[in-house]
Amino acid sequence: MFHLRTCAAKLRPLTASQTVKTFSQNKPAAIRTFQQIRCYSAPVAAEPFLSGTSSNYVEEMYCAWLENPKSVHKSWDIFFRNTNAGAPPGTAYQSPLSLSRSSLATVAHAQSLVEAQPNVDKLVEDHLAVQSLIRAYQIRGHHVAQLDPLGILDADLDSSVPADIISSTDKLDLAVFKDRLGMLTVGGFYGLDESDLDKVFHLPTTTFIGGQESALPLREIIRRLEMAYCQHIGVEFMFINDLEQCQWIRQKFETPGIMQFTNEEKRTLLARLVRSTRFEDFLQRKWSSEKRFGLEGCEVLIPALKTIIDKSSENGVDYVIMGMPHRGRLNVLANVIRKELEQIFCQFDSKLEAADEGSGDMKYHLGMYHRRINRVTDRNITLSLVANPSHLEAADPVVMGKTKAEQFYCGDTEGKKVMSILLHGDAAFAGQGIVYETFHLSDLPSYTTHGTVHVVVNNQIGFTTDPRMARSSPYPTDVARVVNAPIFHVNSDDPEAVMYVCKVAAEWRSTFHKDVVVDLVCYRRNGHNEMDEPMFTQPLMYKQIRKQKPVLQKYAELLVSQGVVNQPEYEEEISKYDKICEEAFTRSKDEKILHIKHWLDSPWPGFFTLDGQPRSMSCPSTGLEEDVLAHIGNVASSVPVENFTIHGGLSRILKTRKELVTNRTVDWALAEYMAFGSLLKEGIHVRLSGQDVERGTFSHRHHVLHDQNVDKKTCIPMNHLWPNQAPYTVCNSSLSEYGVLGFELGFAMASPNALVLWEAQFGDFNNMAQCIIDQFICPGQAKWVRQNGIVLLLPHGMEGMGPEHSSARPERFLQMCNDDPDVLPDLQENNFDINQLYDCNWIVVNCSTPGNFFHVLRRQILLPFRKPLIVFTPKSLLRHPEARTSFDEMLPGTHFHRVIPEDGPAAQDPNNVKRLLFCTGKVYYDLTRERKARGMTEQVAITRIEQLSPFPFDLLLKEAQKYPNAELAWCQEEHKNQGYYDYVKPRLRTTIDRAKPVWYAGRDPAAAPATGNKKTHLTELQRFLDTAFDLDAFKKFS
Ligand SMILES: Cc1ncc(C[n+]2csc(CCOP(=O)(O)OP(=O)(O)O)c2C)c(N)n1
After folding, report:
1. SS3 (DSSP) at 941
2. How do residues 922-956 score in pLDDT, each as one tens digit?
3. Which atom of ligand 1 is nearest to the CA of 476?
């Protein structure tokens, strides 16, 4: 009974406050007596009916009894009195059958206490049954809700009625339930019959169907449960393991009469439906043969989104970031974000010229940013729709990342000011794994955006595919259950029901700051796009759709019949909007040029000049003063807080770091520290995210120190560098590449003044995020004129670690570079290197020294524009004794080296050099070791290409010219069809005007990136080193 008491205390404040008072003040004696006896001398298990869910019910009864013994049934009164009077366990209430098995003494005692109460067991059972029934509705009522506006397909793909739901049309007899459920006891599933329907039952605190009533006849209980759970709204929430949240939802949907709308609200809803519907009608009339992925069949989406935004604005949100697919996008741009209509209409003109460089994108992919007054709340609101590719759901994590960044920059630590709304199609929401990956970011401290409202345009079809062939879950939204997000399914032909769930969804987010899903069960009036014939594949569905009255018409008729509007008013609303469209259409004809930059989703005010140009075309030195380097180095090799015990092994690492600082050198980890720490000093936020980045996969970084004695006590020395430094965020991510890289890309979109880095555990795993790389990072600027300075750190290198821990696939990144291999650019151009960077779609580097890594990270921010930076980072070089850089190469005046020329004996007598080897990255160290071993330092020069793309034509030309008698060869440790060869070779040939061949020394072509056999690995290595230093190796080909 102790459980009862604690549970009752927990439940009370949420429901009847007067009971709390009674419970704590008026009946202390009763509680004490009860508790004493039941808690210490009578185990709960001794009462046969006190188990599982029934204990909740008994608890209800007990609380009610404490308040007023007459408020509960006589049987309960006797039971509780007996209990308080000291009835032994199991005897305060006994069924006749068990009584016969009890000891005679116990039975006699119990009977004397109970007095005459022959039907007590039936009453208890009936109350338990009613409570179970209420619970059944709460759990499974949505399966019975009428969600499909077409009335032909069940939204959960299952037409059966759950066995434990008794509806008002059911006859409470055995036959009905026998049909539904094989296992039956006499009296139906619950043992209720027709005669029970008019009996009054006390309602548990876990329901709000009573309103002011604490007891209702069963017939009314069923009716109210049906009203709450089985009309046009299906609520899925009982999987949420938080009582307060469940109570909140129950209250929102069960309270009688809660779904009320004022006439003004109804008129606003109608006006919004008019806009939504007539917008599509207008486009259809003007451009009947153009694809636009119209919203017909789900016109209610527009008022739905506006309601979510209104409600959120009312609750303090002033910035909403949205992501959505093709369906209804133009309508959302026009009627939610309020993009000028002429800007949308002119996009249908095939003669419109593109003003911006780059590919541009389809009109239903472009983004938008708009600040305006929300007319309902009279508050400022900024709306941003993130541009997205065709790849469904790919924008989800990007939207989340941008939202997180906007929250971060305005100090909105709880998501009260900035929020995101994500729209989905039903097939994509169910099918795309990124949806799941994004949900798993939703509650992580460094990734949470404190709740996203998801809206699914569930038109019950995916292109031509029937949902019964497209998913294995009942609903397309089941993925949301993993994060305990409530899911509100709603029939979209009931606009008021839709508005209600949208209000509740927005309130949910602002109350609990957790994700929520609104599933708009609708239909698609046309084919997948306006050109498609849906009857080929969905004939019956579309026969029904042809008969379906548009929702606007239905709702208008309803409001006219209710006298909320009259017919002329409705017609005037329509003609008013049609006129707006017509006028905008006329204006649109004046638009001759398409400026994609008018469709920017994330402007960076102040970063560019007013006409969008960089403020300069130069980059200052990326070096630092010696004292800055030393200071960062000292903090990096210490524990900057008191009373903090670090691991002994880490002490040794820090000691080694300290020695490096004393010797004025850096290794890889320290170089990174110097870059990050110095940017923080300059007010640049640095955010490093990825799997295990805090320590570093290779245990070299240690940016988060862990106290060895106190759980969760950590220290981030990087945040203890300077008094007014920018904050440093370093966060181990969930095990997702697609989700996390998308998120960081979104984070980097928000501001140019942040260094945002994503590190792959091993570079090999970047292909799990291929879509973010292919669709956003590589072509983002070309498609959407949006720059982004994200940095990808991709550990790469052939070290005998097998096919999946060796290659970040440089060949793929290089293949996607937009520079021309066959055209030598104008090398005399001022600021050639910066212009090249400005023109490229991304920068690809493979640094061979920590110092160069330091410079390239700093250059990323000191450049007057932003480009994505792909860095192939080393593994063994992290600890390689030669991979060190002196402070001298990091002082003011120093900079990133795109090429590191040979500077040994070969460079002293270049005419004598027989071979010039070009290479990149770690293989340089293998080559120099081998050259030394062979005594060929004068015959072979080795030049490192540190920046692969844009290709340093200018510097390499100088190198090639310096060694006139040398053969040229490219050496790489990767297989020939991989790595850099295919990218470098034609560019080197162009550099030297094809005067000489460029030979190859490296591994043979292969399907896998690396061997799994250590010995083979070493054999392959030796073989290509042999080729690299065999001065006759290429004679046979020439
Ligand atoms: C990742 C991805 N795969 C396939 C497609 C091709 N495609 C475009 S729309 C579509 C159907 C989408 O159905 P649903 O998500 O229900 O949205 P609807 O078009 O019905 O609004 C498909 C398969 C795509 N755009 N993206």
Report:
1. strand
2. 999 999 999 999 999 999 999 999 999 999 999 99
3. 16
